[in-house]
Amino acid sequence: PCPGPERPRCPPGPTRWGICSAGAISHDFVLALRTLPPEEHTVAAVAARDLGRARCFAQHFGVPRAYGSYEELAQDPGVDVVYVGVVNPAHLPAGLLFLRRGRPVLMEKPMALGAREVAQLVRTARDKGVFLMEGFWTRFFPAWRRLRSLARGGSLGSPLVLRGELGFDLGGVSRLREPQLGGGVLLDLGGYGLQMALAMLGGPEGQPPPQITAHGVLHPTG
Length: 222
Hints:
This protein is of the alpha/beta class and 222 residues long. The protein has two domains: 15-135, Rossmann fold, CATH 3.40.50; 142-201, no CATH class. The chain is 33% helix and 13% strand. It has helices at 24-33, 51-61, 70-74, 91-100, 115-128, 142-152, 190-201; strands at 15-20, 41-47, 65-67, 81-84, 105-108, 132-135. A six-stranded parallel β-sheet has the order 3-2-1-4-5-6, sandwiched between helices. Helix 2 (51-61) links the parallel strand 2 (41-47) and strand 3 (65-67). The longest helix is centred in the middle third of the chain and has 14 residues, at 115-128. It is an enzyme of class 1 (oxidoreductase).
């Protein structure tokens, strides 16, 4: 069981987001965040390994504070939750940094590079009693939530097969072909279909299927 949340240590107001990484995915996340009412959500700070990039990001979005290290963001008392948008191999160290400082974390998918790393993040979040979630935005689409409700209520019978197709021309994205960079189908867009299958084909209370077998084609890089 996760320890109960502490009482807020700041006056009521908007959730103050810290953005870890000034890359393209963080750019997209902040664009989406800005569609919400400013009295509910605001971006308070951004951090990147290069201070210049963090400052450019902050200037573009009107973010008050920019840092040249993730440690500085973790120590900022004016941040309520951190969105982690770093490259896949950095999810574990960045996540642990913020969780150990008691910062709730929204981790861009994939949560980490494998089950052991995910377990370490989850264990740390539970030990510290802080929020941790993988950023699969599709789980919050109204159509998806309605579909899950119908399936769990028995309106669709017992789902036995889910077929999903997702394809993009990503031939120019070299990191997708490099295992050391967290490349491959499952750690990128393939995760969307996988998490949907796990949700629809498991038990009524969200249990995973009793058996999983994977088939695929390996790139020469592995």
